[in-house]
Amino acid sequence: KRFIVLLFPLESLLFPPVKHSLLYFLTATSGVPDFPQFMGSALVDDFQVGYCDSNIKMAETKQDWRKFMKDNPEHLEFYINECYNNQHFFKATIDGLMKRFNQSGGVHILQRMSGCEWDDETGEIRGFNQYGYDGEDFISLDLQMLTWITPKPQALHRNQYYFIHLYPDWLKKYVQYARSFLQRTDLPSVSLLQKTPSSQVTCHATGFYPDRADLFWRKDGEELHEDVDKVEILPNHDGTFQMSVDLNISSITPEDWKKYDCVFQMSGVKDDLIIKLDKSVIRTNWGKSVRTVESGNETYLSVIYHLFITFGSPNKDFYFQVFKISIIAQWGNLQYYSSKGKVECLENITRK
Question: What highest taxon heads this organism's lineage (predicted)?
């Protein structure tokens, strides 16, 4: 038998090729106290361009993008109209869904994720438009077959124009304008977190950009693949990212703690950030919070609660395959939520 060995650059395996993305997230809520009934957000390469919600009743552009919007007023006008018109549409839709499913109360969430991806090396373009309701895939548009379950088939060709032609054209303009800050490198703060003395130790990195990074535990210099649980990279409210990896310490003796460390690696950055498994550096909500490994910025004194609603996208490599709501809260406990904890997170939000 002959075996053909395919060799790939190590970095291409650890950090997949970058694709540019233009994402629009729209969210309607019902039954969530002290929380906007509607929110909208636009992101270019995971960097927030603008935001609106039913409380502020207007579209706000981030500082880095204000000159672009001033020079291209048709873009700002589009976002203002989208924000205003979708508030009424989403409220009517979520009310209709509650009636359809015989839901008289409780917390309910309707979300839409739309936009496009563009590979500036191959020129490949992919558009998408998906809806979710209460954490389940509700409806999605196949832009190649031009099919989805909709009472308005005439809307399909309009969607094809937006997601295959208009949005990719806008994305290329956004990337050209924003290269200076989209191509920056921000290193994170890396901390060790633990809820109780016997619980797993979490290595948590936050504040890094871009998201071409990795975080892992080592023993005696070798990466661990057992007794560890890695959470996908998650976005922060400021356009940076966070990620974490848990280490089960139940079978680790006190003498062996010094053999373990957590390593943060970023594509294009020579030096790794390394923090030793040491009781004196673990931040807890049952004892002292001592110190963290810093990259130059102060450690965040707030945690972002993420409600992630996973979608069954045909392309399993797409983005995070999640929708997200970010709620900035005081560092009252050391909890953060991924798609695994969306119910717990939602309950936490409603209690605040």
Answer: Eukaryota
Name the pTM for this structure: 0.55
346 in a structural domain: no
Q: Which two tokens stand for residue 250?
A: 């139940």
Over residues 126-154, mean pLDDT: 62
Domain count, the chain: 2
Q: What is the pLDDT of residues 87-124, one digit of tens each?
A: 888 888 888 888 878 888 888 888 888 888 888 778 88
The string of DSSP letters for 74-118 reads HHHHHHHHHHHHHHHHHHHHHHHHHHHTT--SS-EEEEEEEEEEE
My answer on whether 129 and 31 are in the same domain is yes
Q: Distance between CA 219 and CA 40 in Å, rounded? A: 44
Of the residues 257, 276, 300, the one at which a domain ends? 300
pLDDT of residue 138: 64
Domain assignment of residue 83, given as a range: 14-182
- Tokens standing for residue 165: 């032609």
Contact residues for 139 (Cβ-Cβ < 8 A; gap 6+): 130, 131, 148, 149, 150
Which DSSP string corresponds to 272-286?
Answer: PEEEE--GGGEEESS
Q: How far apart are CA 30 and CA 310, in angstroms?
A: 19
What is the C-alpha to C-alpha distance for residues 57 and 200, in angstroms, rounded to an integer? 43
Per-range mean pLDDT, top range of 18-22, 93-97, 193-197, 220-224: 220-224
What residues contact 76, with CB distance under 8 A and at least 6 apart? 59, 61, 69
Starting at the edge strand found earlier in the chain, the sheet holding 201-208 runs 228-235, 241-247, 201-208, 189-194, 282-284
Same domain, 196 and 244: yes
110, 27 in Cβ contact below 8 A?
yes
163/54 same-domain check: yes
